[in-house]
Specification:
By secondary structure, the chain is of the alpha+beta class. Helix content is about 20%, strand content about 25%. The chain is built from six helices and 16 strands. The strands form five sheets. It has a five-stranded antiparallel beta sheet. A four-stranded antiparallel beta sheet has the order 11-14-16-15, covered by helices on one side. The chain has a three-stranded antiparallel beta sheet with strand order 1-10-2. Helix 4 packs across helix 6 and helix 5 runs antiparallel to helix 6. The C terminus is likely disordered.
């Protein structure tokens, strides 16, 4: 089971290191096999802004660009992509950077024009097979920021061995529940907030409460103590309950519903 640390944090407020999480899950019987860093090869790529772009005087397809890559000065970079233009935000490999295919970027002269870096395509970054032109980034990308941060690429992925008796952990949500319990991430304020959301759901008619005689049943028919079951159908509220209140909740019949035992 591959677990993205950034994805896990969408379900539970874990801010610790991947190694610490792996150790704790291993103690719970969910053995950590490895910690992967899938985008380490492009961790040195930064966002650049093409301030100027002019045709190369001695070439019919090259362009001489001046690029702000957050280095304190504009860099001269020669680019052969047909779609490069002034005003773009682009991924830039600075001198000394190593691309996924092993290419090391060096200072160069292309037909007499100096070049201090490389504006990259998606294939050169190992992201896709598209090499029709350079990769153009959103205007909101900060100049000088690391590409992996701008694209929110996974920095750390845990490879966790799931035993046959823990099928409940074959999902990010299931591992988020284990993480919340292992690190005691359930806080009083969070519980109060979630219960308030559930109450609003019930008031709006999106949830309903029921008592079945002297016993209450969850979606799978398991017997619980006497109490009230609230069926939550709002996906966001349901996911939060399942992640943060596993001792009070159980998955309902649908993937986006939960039942809260009060």
């Amino acid at each position: 089971m591959l677990l993205s640390l950034s994805w896990l944090r969408e379900f539970t407020p874990y801010e610790g290191a991947a190694e610490e999480l792996g150790d704790r899950l291993t103690m719970l019987g969910l053995e950590l096999e490895d910690i992967l860093h899938p985008y380490d090869a492009i961790s040195s790529i930064v966002v650049g802004y093409v301030a100027e772009c002019a045709p190369h005087p001695d070439s019919d397809h090259l362009h001489c660009c001046k690029v702000d890559a957050g280095q304190g000065q504009l860099l001269d970079i020669v680019c052969g992509a047909p779609n490069v233009a002034a005003g773009q935000k682009v991924p830039v490999a600075l001198v000394g950077s190593r691309l996924p295919d092993g290419t090391v970027i060096k200072k160069a002269k292309l037909r007499g024009a100096p070049s201090f870096g490389m504006i990259c395509s998606e294939r050169e970054l190992g992201l896709t097979e598209d090499h029709s032109g350079i990769m153009v980034l959103p205007d909101s990308a900060a100049v000088g920021a690391r590409l992996v941060d701008v694209l929110e690429l996974d920095r750390e992925v845990l490879d966790i061995s799931i035993t046959p008796n823990r099928a409940d952990c074959l999902s990010v949500l299931g591992l988020a529940r284990e993480t919340a319990l292992a690190f005691n991430l359930l806080k009083f304020a969070g519980c109060a907030y979630l219960l308030w959301l559930a109450w609003l759901e019930w008031r709006s008619g999106a949830a309903h409460a029921s008592v079945r005689g002297n016993t209450a049943f969850c979606g799978y028919g398991a017997l619980f103590r006497r109490g009230i079951i609230m069926n939550i159908t709002n996906p966001k509220v349901s996911l939060f309950f399942l992640a943060f209140l596993p001792q009070f909740s159980d998955p309902g019949r649908g993937n986006l519903s939960a039942q809260i035992i009060l």
